[in-house]
Amino acid sequence: MNQLFKAFADPNRRKILELLKTKDMYVNELLEHFSITQASLSHHLEILRSADLVIAEKKGQFVSYSLNTSVLEQFIASLYTMFTK
Questions:
Q1: Digitized pLDDT (tens) for each residue of the chain, 85 residues in all
Q2: CA distance 52 to 49
């Protein structure tokens, strides 16, 4: 759960999750929405991958990123349980 809190702590990572909510995207598509370097974006994506919030799928030379909704649902359910007891 600590990795999830770390992932949600940064506004850039929250924005990545918001963007991936609309559709799967490649790094170059995500990069269009930020004023950061590709290396920084890759670092944020790695943190999101480590928390299992995003799924990376290699498609030829490129990697497509998608939202892992099952982990998000589990996280929300855990928070709900934590705060309603």
A1: 788 889 999 999 999 999 999 999 999 999 999 999 999 999 999 999 999 999 999 999 999 999 999 887 888 888 888 888 7
A2: 5
Backbone conformation region of residue 60, classed left if phi is above 0, alpha if psi is from -120 to 50, else beta:
left
For residue 68, which of 45, 85, 35, 84 has the smallest C-alpha distance? 45
Residue 79 main-chain phi, psi, to 5 deg: -65, -40
CATH architecture of 2-84: Orthogonal Bundle (1.10)
**In this structure, are residues 72 and 53 in contact, taking their beta carbons and an 8 Å threshold?**
yes
| Model confidence, pTM | 0.87
Angle 34-19-78 (CA atoms, 0-180°, nearest 5)?
120
Ordered by start, the domain boundaries in the chain are 2-84
